[in-house]
Amino acid sequence: DPLQALNPFGPYSALQNAMSRDLQRTVALDLCFPFQLQPCLETGLYHAAVVSPIQYARLSKAQRFPVIAVPAGEGEPIVQPALLVVPADSPIQAVEDLRGETVAFGPAPDSRTHYAALDLLAAHGLQKADLRLELLPIPGSLKHLPNAREVVSCVLSGSAAAGFVDEGEWEELPETSGPAGAIGRDMLRVIARTAALPNQLVISSPRLDPQTLECVQSFFIRAGETHPEALQPLRIERFELPSDELLATCRELAVRESRSAAANGGAEALSPTTDSPAQ
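Above: the chain sequence. Below: its structure as tokens.
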């Protein structure tokens, strides 16, 4: 959306206004790039941030940054896996069968269809070097695609032997294929699932005082009931408290990323050079 690119805070405006009213203090928004995230939270320049699971996992001693709440979309659980799919008639039966094959991933910064996907492959003995890699745009790169439909189309066309799609996007596909080549789930087969992760996490600065932290957390947890109209532009239905298991799964992303990077000869072998800003 070009307008959102010009004003990335537009969808947050209603939530910002509601939060300012409820907390009786001005809430300001800012764009925070990954390299700024930790120092800005540690110094208290930012009181809170909306981050992806991999951004949270990469924080040094992430436990120091309280997770205030976790958002969920309408009718969705707060965590979902990515699914590894192959054509329904594919001879591939297991993850291990993908050695030497092309695998389609989601966007490079995506926590589920990139990072958790690489974790799944590594758990089955496959590193980046074990896959058939791309010549363009960079020789030796993974095949990244912008969304689930592109991944599914790539898999069905034979351009990739398998691909990773978010479970939520998978469920949005029709159960059966339709006329004019419409894609249905019956054309594909799920052979594995990644770890289940949230879309985002709302985290706090360690310098935020306990009373304010409690008020901010209370606002988010009640927002689905008290300010549903403010959540709608963000496609969020509610916020929930995180479980210890959820946080441990998120933090494990960075541990596995380091192991996989070492196995591939360096961090840049798996890590994209850019990441989406936190907000």
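The CA atoms of residues 1 and 8 lie 10 Å apart.
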